[in-house]
């Protein structure tokens, strides 16, 4: 309602009451005006009524919501299901145009405005999280792997003779396949073991650059956030190498926005050397549904070049999700979540350390990894590999998600490349281990319940291993007794799993 509508309302309802309602609406409009003027995340989160008013005002700016609109084209924002329309707040046209994902759509001024505001808010949050000199970013409706591919394809036009990507090893399939999908040959640089940590082999990186020749290398593809005992790459040193040899540098910062240490590494790398783009996931950093990522960088023209590489229009859903989330939280709310995550990391670390010592295991010393932790699995029994795998299965059936068990000697082939010791980021890590991470949104009760269930599972695995060992001893002692150990272990396994499923 505008002033004329309120004035007309005064003929039907007491003017004092109408003026009060008008002032209430102005308070909502004031928040919207500040957002549009400053282009920054508000300090305090908005209430739902302000959010819905804002989204409704944007949606009615799109042509599919015009009263009396007559669409005679093939893409006119028609939606068969009213439920689908409501799910998307009637933003049907998506974002961008056929030539640029960041371009304004004449048919959809509201969706275009939503896109611009979202990118502006996300840029503000990236600066708040620690990368203060970032110049541009945009939300892309693809997860991290495909967003990395988009960066590599953009670099192809700048470096037409390049065919290799230097990649310090991290055992995660999507970042590896992002290079294959873009049509390049990954050059895997094995990590070096320093104490318990797996760190970047800088000498091997530089040697490979000299061997292949800088002109034949598309970029260095480094990583921040990762599973312990691997730790973030030495970004500052890699950035200096890239600057010295004139090689682009793309950083996989998948869930690094929530970590001040990861963001500081990116900031420092850009300060002392070269970082062309860094890519981060929306769902892992902002607690929204999977399907979006942020591509950011320090050169405005290069980030625009990446956005123009995206073919066609794009879904507005990831942009809408993160916009609603950031406006609901406000910058203060997001900073609070970052602070709580750090506290949860310390708490998880202390609790996992206590539990590991109870079982004569230990928490691996990985001080350079600010998110993920690892606990050794050396004392589960004689058949260690089977026990480690069984522990992972038991945790899963007890509804523990996110924890990973990593046995020794696992072999995995990804897009034709075979990795020894897959999941451990190296060919021969000294021991099997279990991973757990303190990610944004984790609560104290999550840690407590995880430790409780892990404790029960460790006890159960040890008990079963002891039974199998005893049965094996009896069989060796009395050869006349025909004991099928595998059958007995299977029966014990089934009984054990049934017991725990019933008690969950």
Short summary of the structure?
The protein is an alpha/beta fold and 504 residues long.
Description:
InterPro entries: Peroxidases_heam-ligand_BS, PyrdxlP-dep_Trfase, PyrdxlP-dep_Trfase_major, Sec-tRNA_Se_transferase, SepSecS/SepCysS. Belongs to the SepSecS family. This is O-phosphoseryl-tRNA(Sec) selenium transferase. It catalyses: O-phospho-L-seryl-tRNA(Sec) + selenophosphate + H2O = L-selenocysteinyl-tRNA(Sec) + 2 phosphate. Keywords: Cytoplasm, Protein biosynthesis, Pyridoxal phosphate, RNA-binding, Selenium, Transferase, tRNA-binding. The protein is of the alpha/beta class and 504 residues long. The protein has 3 domains: 3-68 and 75-88, Arc Repressor Mutant, subunit A; 109-329, 3-Layer(aba) Sandwich (Aspartate Aminotransferase, domain 2), CATH 3.40.640; 335-470, Aspartate Aminotransferase, domain 1. The protein contains 16 helices and 14 strands. It has a 7-stranded mixed beta sheet, sandwiched between helices. Helix 1 packs antiparallel against helix 2, helix 6 (144-158) runs parallel beside helix 7 (173-181) and helix 9 runs parallel beside helix 10. The radius of gyration is 27 Å and the shape is globular. Mean pLDDT is 91; it is low at 474-490 and 499-504.
């Amino acid at each position: 309602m505008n002033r004329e509508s309120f004035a007309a309302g005064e003929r039907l309802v007491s003017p004092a009451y109408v003026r009060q309602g008008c002032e209430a609406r102005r308070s909502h409009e004031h928040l919207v005006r500040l957002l549009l003027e400053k282009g920054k995340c508000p300090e305090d989160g908005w209430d739902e009524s302000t959010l819905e008013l804002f989204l409704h005002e944007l949606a009615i700016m799109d042509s599919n919501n015009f009263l009396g609109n007559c669409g005679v084209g093939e893409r006119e924002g028609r939606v068969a299901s009213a439920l689908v329309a409501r799910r998307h707040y009637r933003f049907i046209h998506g974002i961008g145009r056929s030539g640029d994902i960041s371009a304004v759509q004449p048919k959809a001024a509201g969706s275009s405005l939503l896109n611009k505001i979202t990118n502006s808010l996300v840029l503000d949050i990236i600066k708040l999280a620690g990368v203060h000199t970032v110049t541009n970013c945009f939300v892309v409706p693809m997860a991290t792997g495909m967003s990395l591919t988009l960066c590599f394809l953009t670099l192809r036009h700048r470096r037409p003779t390049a065919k290799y990507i230097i990649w310090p090893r991290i055992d995660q399939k999507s970042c590896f396949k992002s290079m294959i999908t873009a049509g390049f040959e990954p050059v895997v640089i094995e990590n070096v073991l320093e104490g318990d940590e797996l760190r970047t082999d800088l000498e091997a990186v530089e040697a490979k650059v000299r061997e292949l020749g800088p002109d034949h290398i598309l970029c260095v593809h480094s990583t921040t956030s990762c599973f312990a005992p691997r730790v973030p790459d030495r970004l500052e040193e890699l950035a200096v190498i890239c600057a010295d040899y004139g090689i682009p540098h793309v950083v996989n910062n998948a869930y690094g926005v929530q970590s001040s240490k990861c963001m500081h590494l990116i900031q420092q790398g850009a300060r002392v050397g070269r970082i062309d783009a860094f890519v981060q996931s929306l769902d892992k950093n902002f607690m929204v549904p999977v399907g979006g990522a942020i591509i950011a960088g320090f050169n405005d023209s290069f980030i625009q070049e990446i956005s123009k590489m995206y073919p066609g229009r794009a879904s507005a859903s990831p942009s809408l999700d993160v916009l609603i989330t950031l406006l609901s939280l406000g910058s203060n709310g997001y900073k609070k979540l970052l602070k709580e995550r750090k506290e949860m990391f310390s708490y998880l670390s202390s609790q996992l350390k206590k539990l590991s010592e109870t079982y004569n295991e230990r928490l691996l010393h990985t001080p350079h990894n600010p998110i993920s932790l690892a606990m050794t699995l050396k004392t589960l029994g004689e058949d260690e590999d089977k026990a480690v795998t069984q522990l992972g299965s038991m945790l899963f059936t007890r509804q523990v998600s996110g924890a990973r068990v990593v046995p020794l000697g696992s072999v995995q082939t990804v897009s034709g490349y075979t990795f020894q010791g897959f999941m451990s980021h190296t060919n021969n890590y000294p021991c099997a281990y279990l991973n757990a991470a303190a990610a944004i949104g984790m609560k104290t009760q999550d840690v407590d319940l995880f430790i409780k269930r892990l404790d029960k599972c460790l006890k159960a695995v040890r008990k079963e291993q002891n039974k199998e060992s005893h049965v094996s001893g009896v069989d060796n002692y009395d050869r006349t007794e025909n004991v099928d150990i595998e059958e007995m272990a299977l029966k014990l396994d089934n009984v054990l799993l049934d017991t725990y499923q019933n008690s969950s």
